[in-house]
Design goal:
46 residues
């Protein structure tokens, strides 16, 4: 879902949470502005 780009599809996120029994504990965020500004997103933890 993150790699799709564009706006967050909240309905798709809700379906994913229901299907995978995920509880959202932090709000969804979209970092498109950081990419447009030339700022790389933080590296995922290894």
């Amino acid at each position: 879902m993150r790699g799709a780009g564009g706006e967050v599809d909240h309905a798709a996120a809700e379906r994913l949470r229901l299907r995978c029994d995920i509880e959202q504990i932090t709000p969804l965020r979209h970092d498109a502005g950081r990419h447009e500004a030339g700022v790389a997103p933080a590296a995922p933890p290894s």
